[in-house]
Amino acid sequence: MSRVLIVGSEGQIGSQLSKELSKEIDFDNLFLSDICDESKSDLKYFRLDALSYDDLKKNILDNDISEVYHLAAILSAKGEKDPMLTWNLNMNSLFNILNLAKEKIIKKVFWPSSIAVFGDHSSKNNTPQFTDKEPITVYGISKLAGENWCKYYNERYGTDVRSLRFPGVISYNTLPGGGTTDYANDIFHSFKSGKNYNCYLKENTILPMIYIDDAINGIVKLMESPKDNLRIKSSYNISGFSTSPKMIAEELKNINKEFKVEYKSDFRQIIADSWPNSIKDKYAREDWDWKENFDLKKTVKEMISKLNIR
Ligand code: NAD
User: So which residues are the catalytic ones?
Assistant: First the structure.
């Protein structure tokens, strides 16, 4: 039985991943950690700065951890406010984990990348696994460098580091922490509170998205797969569906025709315009049977129900 640590457990993905893993892993074998003083969950938790190699190593050895889900990062839009801080956290926390894997202190790692690795010269539609990548944000630069380092450690040192290139994640439990696709979460909260929504992207900006249950299912499936089946040593393309602010707004207007969205784009539009409209995730489908369960309509239905919107 693996003993598992989530680093960055209190964020959008971590808070749902911990719930899912706790269904399969005994209470005593699952550990959560984040930079916050307390966890929102009732699972075992300690405060841990992912930038401290010594603290990470001590906690991992003390608790006999064999598997780490490393989720701590600064995301695309927030990252642009302080590029050096973003580079430091995103890269050096990853190096800490990679080096613990290289030293065989950790046996298996999950680390998420992002569609932010793509840029203006990547193919726009059905963007394949291998294409030009010139990211325009410090976040995208750090994720692309991180992917290459994962590949390097896997091939050079035989580590078992697995990764998914997530599109925008839509979830009900925790608001996202400063990404370019956050609108696809925020809009539901405005809808719930009966307010109009001011969208920072243009109405027809199409981006790839994934519903949280699919994102978590993807992580679990990838981590359960036999290592030998995994041809991609950097990070797998993965996607749920593609949508625009207008398409989500239309779905919500079908529920309440009074709901209004105003569009005034800001700096996040430039980031969104550099990203793909849709993703081709053929390697994930072939290597570990990836298949999404949620399209836009099902996601909206689920968000409405989970957020208790009447
Ligand atoms: P989030 O911002 O919601 O959560 C990140 C967590 O990391 C936060 O709880 C934060 O407190 C914690 N953290 C920050 N600095 C830390 C430190 N020094 N030590 C320990 N913890 C620290 O982000 P998220 O949306 O849950 O994303 C998780 C991962 O998935 C990130 O690597 C992100 O790049 C990736 N990802 C997310 C999305 C998305 O749409 N949410 C899309 C693509 C990739």
Answer: 139
What pLDDT shows up at residue 309? 81
- H-type helices in 134-244, by residue range? 138-157, 183-192, 212-224
Q: Say yes or no: CB of residue 179 within 6 Å of ligand 1.
A: yes
Q: How far, in Å, from the CA of 254 to the mean position of ligand 1?
A: 33
Tell me the C-alpha distance between 173 and 55, whole Å. 29
Instruction: State whether the beta carbon of 110 lies less than 6 angstroms from ligand 1.
Output: no
Looking up tokens 């550099």 gives 274
pLDDT digit string (tens) for 124-180?
Answer: 999 999 999 999 999 999 999 999 999 999 999 999 999 999 999 999 988 878 999
Closest by alpha carbon to 29, among 69, 70, 72, 64?
64
| Number of residues in the chain | 310
Best residue for ligand 1 mutational test, from 82, 166, 181 (most atoms within 8 Å of Cβ): 166
Cα(71) to ligand 1 centroid in Å equals 5
Q: Which atom of ligand 1 is nearest to the CA of 70?
A: 32
Judge if pTM exceeds 0.90.
Answer: yes
